[in-house]
Amino acid sequence: MIKRNSPMRRRERIWLVLPLALLVFPFLLLPLLLGLFESLTNYGPLQPHPQFVGLANYAAVFRTPDFAASWRNILIMVTVAVPLELAIGIGLGYLLREPFRGRAFLRVVFLLPWLVSPIANGAMWHFLLSQQVGMLSYFAAWFGMDFYSPLASVTWALPTAIATDVWRNAPFACFLLFPGLLAIPPELWEFATLEGASVFAQIRYIVLPWLMPLLLAVALLLVGSTLGTFDDVLILTGGGPGSATVTPALYSYLQAFQFALWPAGVTAAWLIVASMILIALVYLRLTRVEAAA
Amino acid sequence: MSARFSRRKASIYTPGPVGFALSYVMLALWAFVVLFPLYWLFVTSFKTPIEVDSGPFYIPFVDFQPTLDAWQYIVVGDLSHDTWRNYTNTVVVALSSSALAIVLGAAAAYALDRFTYGRRFGTILAAMATILFMVVFVGVGVPVLVTVGVAIAIFILLFVNLARGSDAIAFWMIAQRMLPPVAIVIPIYLMFQKLSLLDTWGALIVTYVAANLPIVVWLMRDYFQSIPRELEECAAIDGASRYRTFWSIVLPLAVPGLVATFLFVLVFAWNEYLLALFLTTANAQTLPLTIAAQNATRGPQWWYMSVLVIIMIAPVIVLAILLERYMAKGLLVGAVKG
């Protein structure tokens, strides 16, 4: 009887979407395309007549050792940090699923780290982990141990950067996953209780299957934000020591603005974009499989 | 037996006493992990430089005599002019860009969810983007043959994707939200330079709205999907106009999603660093720049840094507390239902 599209006229639909197109095309899509084009030329702030150079920039970028290091670092970061953040998010959500006094308060407390800006997060951990006045050096002193800031260690700088990333992003995962956990039908919990299922069995057979689509979406957001890791590492370690904590975004920034190698910076940035597009495609494929299952 | 089968909500989860104690211990542990660094910043902001340097002092009035020196310097003293200017900028830019992104994004999301845009719409979009590409490429001296080749490839890619409807929209929204600002910052800088809008609120607001729109559309489209269409159809049968239906049925149901999405984009705009670094020089600088500058120019003056971080996150915390009750339903609920 009622046609779905009938009440809203074509003109209304266009008006609703027009602002989106007007803002996203010039200020997001166009800069992106310009970046792609610049990565194929020797364009730069000091280069008035850029020339087309094909894939030379890509070849040059791939040859620099720091670039390889940055991708190695970010792969480690993503594969360690994102599952950890999801696990903490699910764990906290699981602990909070039963209403109790102060739950709303705890929920806000657990959200706090995400409200700290990446810049402030980097600065704060730089302070907490500093050699002389850092918190950890006091803890070490209690136990009579010598303390060397992990930020100055080639081995420990990256795990530390990952830990600060988890500190800030796990609350975000919890914030998004918690309502999903609450939406699990009570019958399922009841069933698990009757069966005497352990915590791990509950998570494996109830929580994970139920949350899967939401989990995928949150994982996507976390992978995205981790891939773009930039400001916190910039302040925390500056990418050092050596290239131990360089990320692709930081690499791109340093190439373009510290070493004035503009084409290298743009090219590196575009490789991040390409990887994001790839991840978005994989995500859509997974959600379609999930929907079909 | 009866307790076991009771329908009361509390009983169905109830773990044994050990599990109960364990879950409290774990919650307390995580609360400590979350709160201690913030507490440490808080007490550091009341310390003198000597107290910061000479060892751990945990509790004000017990371990050390708190002083307002650092607060005085940042909030009313030498640095107060810069602090308050950047504070005002952050508040204005973050609030207005988030509000705009929510209104425009939610409108588009509603339209995109409720009405399927046909193949023709996709074709027009794909053609527009392709032409954009070609103009840019030829304009900067790429050989025409290469341009045409790239343009055809892009058109096919866009067309295949866009014509597939809602999935494709989701794809573009997701892909764009995850862009690192590094990838777009220079072209945007040049654009605003041409428009003579550098170092103004307008430049930052427009950029943040554009950067946040895709995620708003993605989240809100999902949220609108979870609102049953039957409700709207019922209202239509009862003779309610399109706008009446939207204002009195869809909008109230969408409030939790709107609030959570608002917090999401506000936190981004409040904390964004790189774009602000390029688009502003003095008058429109925001708080992340203040913190970065404090870190870079004056070195480890942790007492000042602590004050800055605290005044920066305080308003967002207050907002999160105020909005908490509206967010119980959560985002991406459509995703839960598959």
How would you name the oligomeric state of the polypeptide chains in this document?
heterodimer
Write down the Rg of chain A.
Answer: 24 Å
Characterize the overall form of chain A.
globular
Name of the CATH homologous superfamily of chain A: MetI-like
Q: Using the coordinates above, name the CATH class of the largest domain in chain B.
A: Mainly Alpha
Query: Largest interface by residue count?
Result: A-B, 121 and 116 residues
Topology of chain B as a string of helices (H) and strands (E):
HHHHHHHHHHHHHHHHH
Compute the separation of the termini of chain A in Å: 31 Å
Number of helices of chain B: 17
The main pleated sheet of chain A reads as: none
Beta content of chain B comes to: under 5%
| Helix-and-strand structural type of chain A | mainly alpha
The CATH architecture name of chain A reads: Orthogonal Bundle
Radius of gyration of chain B: 26 Å
User: In terms of structural class, how would the helical and strand content of chain B be classed?
Assistant: mainly alpha
Named CATH topology of chain A: MetI-like fold
Average pLDDT score of chain B: 78
